[in-house]
Write a structure and sequence with these properties.
This protein is mainly α. It is built from 15 helices and four strands.
Length: 429
């Protein structure tokens, strides 16, 4: 049956496609339909999403509506800054980010001679509430999440309020002299009476900072309230942070980790390299990840030996795959296909995502390893990523995987996120 609504939508789509053909990079600053230069997200996918929304795609509309619920709430929050914390880092500079190791606890009662109860001992998966008393981690999570959601909300709706608030949050955290964070993580995940900061603290920024990079790339397409000086400032900050990541003691330690920490380090480093113009370095990181990350971390069955002994093994299986699937997306930008790499032992990203499917569909009774706080939906995004990469098994499973609170946002921000974030969950007894 003839539909005037479909005809109008079709004409609109044709007009959009015509503008895409004629759009040039030189016009990007003020180009409504130019492809964003994102590093994890595929800029072409974002453009196609906008076209499909014009054509009335219901799945995308539902996903966007869920995103906008969160983005509208973000408009009344923030901005956030590291200088707000009452604590002072060992450097004496509140512009330095500060956090404590979440799973380390005092082993002795507090006394006047030993007020912190040292030495500290590790209790894997059990959060020490003292770690949450330092606000930098929570404010980083809030700020970076808001930046990402607000930028996407502006991109899809063109409502300038979203872009302007994203710009405010970005400038406050990264650029303004009075409030900016110094581009280092020298004091992340310290352990009282033992060490001021550790390489594994870098994971607190690993995937959320790449979301910030993609948000900036989206705003770079001509967002109101965001200008070339802001872009230059962010490229400078991110370049300085990447230099620190590559050369600092903490950075070198994290690069040497052989579990999810190493995966996230490579993903973060490759994303920063690509955005700051070091394309060949980004490509080399992705190439090296085949033998350096996938081969030793995924076995022939798709299990992850480095993660399965954890008390939160389901979380860490999906968490590590967030890093590796995002790294695979960066690989697409530099001509490397991580999805179709198969280690000599038989391990691959497809095998790893297949391993999750019985539990993602059937629940915790199908999971063979320890898990203190099971969230079935944690696998949703990595299965989406596998389906996008060509996995028929993942695509067939998706309709049977529960969605997280707030709905399935993957369609409008097609890259895996950590859906069961445990960084701020209440400590267990």
């Amino acid at each position: 049956m003839f539909s005037l609504r479909r005809l109008v939508a079709g004409v609109a789509v044709i007009g959009v496609l015509a503008s895409l053909v004629t759009a040039t990079p030189a016009a990007a600053d003020h180009c409504r339909w130019c492809k964003p230069g994102t590093v994890v997200l595929d800029g072409a996918d974002l453009v196609r999403n906008r076209v499909r929304l014009l054509a009335g795609d219901r799945t995308l509309r539902t996903s966007l509506d869920n995103l906008l619920v969160q983005a509208r709430a973000d408009l009344s929050k923030g901005p956030w800054t590291v200088v707000d914390k009452p604590q002072t880092p060992p450097s004496g500079d509140k512009h330095d980010y500060l956090s404590l190791a979440p799973y380390w606890w005092p082993s002795q009662p507090s006394t006047p001679d030993n007020p912190r109860g040292c030495p500290y001992v590790q209790r894997d998966g059990v959060r020490n509430p003292a770690a949450d008393a330092i606000p930098d981690k929570a404010e980083r999570l809030a700020a970076f999440g808001a930046i990402y959601r607000l930028s996407l909300a502006w991109y899809y709706t063109r409502d300038p309020a979203y872009a302007r608030h994203a710009a405010l949050v970005l400038r406050t955290w990264f650029l303004d002299a009075a409030t900016r964070m110094n581009p280092n993580l020298n004091f992340a995940q310290g352990i009282p009476c033992r060490v001021d900061g550790r390489g594994i603290g870098i994971i607190e920024f690993a995937y959320t900072l790449t979301e910030v990079v993609d948000a900036v790339a989206i705003l770079d397409t001509g967002a109101p309230g965001w200008n070339p000086a802001d872009t230059r400032g962010m490229k400078t900050w991110l370049g300085q942070f990447h230099d620190w990541l590559l050369t600092s003691k903490n950075g070198r330690e994290e690069a040497a980790e052989d579990n999810n920490h190493g995966s996230f380090y490579d993903m973060l480093s490759a994303g920063l390299a690509l955005y700051t113009g070091k394309r060949q370095l980004a490509r080399q990181i992705v190439l090296d990840a085949r033998e350096k990350r996938i081969a030793p971390q995924i076995d022939a069955e798709g299990s992850q030996p480095k993660e399965r002994t954890r008390t939160r093994s389901w979380h860490y299986f999906t968490f590590n795959l967030v890093a590796l699937t995002r790294l695979a997306q960066i690989g697409e930008r530099v001509g490397v296909d991580l999805w179709r790499y198969r280690a000599s032992s038989g391990g691959s990203l497809f095998k790893a995502t297949d391993f999750l499917i019985p539990t993602a569909v059937g629940g915790q009774s199908h999971w063979p390893y320890p898990e203190m706080d099971f969230h079935q939906y944690a696998a949703l995004d990595v299965l989406h990523a596998a389906a996008d990469a060509g996995s028929r098994a993942a695509r067939a499973a998706l309709p049977r995987v529960p969605v997280p609170p707030g709905g399935d946002l993957y369609p409008v921000r097609p890259a895996a996120e950590q859906l069961d974030d445990i960084s701020l969950t209440p400590p267990r007894p």
